[in-house]
Amino acid sequence: xxxxxxxxxxxxxxxxxxxxxxxxxxxxxxxxxxxxxxxxxxxxxxxxxxxxxxxxxxxxxxxxxxxxxxxxxxxxxxxxxxxxxxxxxxxxxxxxxxxxxxxxxxxxxxxxxxxxxxxxxxxxxxxxxxxxxxxxxxxxxxxxxxxxxxxxxxxxxxxxxxxxxxxxxxxxxxxxxxxxxxxxxxxxxxxxxxxxxxxxxxxxxxxxxxxxxxxxxxxxxxxxxxxxx
Length: 229
Fold this sequence. Notes:
Elements: E1 40-43, H1 54-62, E2 70-73, H2 81-99, E3 104-109, H3 112-122, E4 129-135, H4 151-155, H5 161-166, E5 177-182, E6 201-204, H6 217-227
Parallel strand pairs: 1-2, 1-3, 3-4, 4-5, 5-6
């Protein structure tokens, strides 16, 4: 069931660079893996790769998730987000087949939120995803995308045809639970209102840089507890 919008003012999200930050993993005292938990598919942002999720994935392992249920996917972030969405659909099917699960949870950073939303909206993903998370996602575009020229960058520009289509109608379609996190100190996305989605639970973090959303212990715990319901 969809959750109502809880934050009226939103800021900044979805960077153009995703660089690995090394922070020691730490277990948290919250909810752990159970028989009802779903496998997690991590989707990185522009210029990133699956290793961007090392810290968060280690924390999930410390809380009981088996490695087989944590997929740190890498894709070509220069291509259209629509192309990535098609590849994501195949990756979801592989993860479901490998684990025997009925659904996956998708956790995204930055631009990774766009391809996964396209998958949910246009490629039947709502029937295979229980929870979707966007950490600093440029869901309504970012002026910073005017400084790069790959296809994916042009799609991140405010008012692009890709974003106009993606945000038309219901921004959180189907039965998955949608949640976003934004930081008042993440200066990569302009305008600040880009992150929040109508119909999602939208959470303001502490003063974190864009990449720190991947490694902050509080954001991890909130993400874990959101998907593990």
